[in-house]
Amino acid sequence: MMRPALKDAAMRFARSEEGAGTAMGLFTLITICAVGGIAADVTRVYNKRIELQNAADMAAHAAIFNRQTMEPDVAIARAVDLVHHSLPPDHEGRLITPDYVVFGKMVDGEFVLDPESKEAAMVQTARAAERGNAIHAYLTRWIGIDAWSVRSNSIFQSYQPGCLNEGLFADNYVDISSNNSFYNGFCVHSNNYVDLQISNFFEEGTVVSMPDRNDIGLPASGFESNEGLMEALRDAYYEPTLIAQLPDIIDAMDEPGSDHMPDYITSGSIIELSGNQFTPEDFTPGAIHRILCAGGQSIQFKSSSSASVFRDVVINVPCKVKFGQGVGFEDAVIASSSTSPLAFVGPSGVIVGRDDGCAEGGGAQLLTLGSMSFASDLQAYGGQFVAAGNISFSARADGVEGVSMVAGDYIQGASLMNMGLCNGGMEDNFNVPYYRMAG
């Protein structure tokens, strides 16, 4: 039997609450350390994931950019090297390897593998156990997590803005007069502002864009007198990359086998011509021609008694050009290094491209480091006009079957023009890819 004194002491000990705080504090400390450890490791993992995503984005953009001019394996190597030189040395190249950089196409919003494609690139970066670079855990080892695996994907694709494929694009402004019609999603874009007069028609789906749509210039009651304009307005800005690369493109027209040379040029030699008046019979189909101009001389392309169409030729012209009335160009490039405000001048009825209902082939391109001006009845059928300066044309211009005008300064059009989206026959147009994130 327990002695009374011992029994009383045992009862007092059992009823005592002294020291409970110490035990509770111990349990609280353990809980705080566990939660804090998880928070610290999770925060570190999130930071590493951001690093992974940045690396994936960088590599995907570099891969698709370099793929435009390089073979796939070279473009991939360049992308991987860029990431390796941009990351801390402790990654040792395991975060991204060539096996995780692939090319393909975007089909209905999904990436479809195509090793030869120049349309899209997908990259996966990872800190994972199978790559030997998992993120080591610290405090979360207390709960059995020794390492973290994190992955990031990125897809970049090349694209051509619709306004640069078919439409009017000016880096400064677009000035359009009255009584013109725009159809089938045609685009009128300026990187500054668009100025319109009255009685213009914009079919549903047509785009009129500028960085701030509120900068559009209109007369009183402008929206009421320009049907469809309100619905067509968009905010947009595009770098004028085609204008920036225009000198290089024009130079490339003097280089047989260059990447910009059209397929219908089959001769590896250059034919030099002198004089100041030329007809279609003066040029050899399938060949590059260089016209030798003296001083401030200008030349003229004109019709002969038997032909009015210049076909299957590239013509390099360092001086001003005058086009004869009714002359046409099909599968042809006229590249002028003249910087004159009158580099290209045409009377009425100049025809750029073949009237073939938007069929493949037959288009033509007029390129100049200066400006171009055309009188009435300019006709374009898969025709591209690119000027470092401005482009102007008078009444009754017809571009319903494919026209692209790109100006480094302004575009000015008069009245009674008809412009529409062709969606064909523009495959030989010169363009510079743009890039955007697709996933």
Notes on the structure:
- It is a single chain.
- By secondary structure, this protein is an alpha/beta fold.
- It folds into two domains: about 20-160, no CATH class; about 160-430, no CATH class.
- The protein is built from seven helices and 34 strands.
- Helix 2 packs antiparallel against helix 3 (about 70-85).
- The radius of gyration is 33 Å and the shape is elongated.
Topology record:
Blueprint: H1 4-15, H2 20-67, H3 72-86, E1 101-107, E2 110-113, E3 120-127, E4 135-136, E5 147-148, E6 150-159, H4 162-165, E7 167-170, E8 173-176, E9 181-182, E10 187-190, E11 193-196, E12 200-202, E13 207-210, H5 222-225, E14 226-227, H6 229-232, E15 233-235, H7 241-252, E16 270-274, E17 277-278, E18 287-292, E19 298-301, E20 309-317, E21 320-323, E22 328-336, E23 344-346, E24 351-353, E25 364-368, E26 372-374, E27 379-381, E28 383-387, E29 391-393, E30 398-399, E31 403-407, E32 410-413, E33 418-419, E34 434-437
Parallel strand pairs: 7-10, 7-31, 8-11, 8-32, 9-12, 9-33, 10-13, 12-14, 13-15, 16-18, 17-19, 18-20, 19-21, 20-22, 21-23, 22-24, 22-25, 23-26, 24-27, 25-28, 26-29, 28-31, 29-32, 30-33
Antiparallel strand pairs: 1-2, 1-3, 3-6, 4-5, 6-34
Helix pairs in contact: 2-3
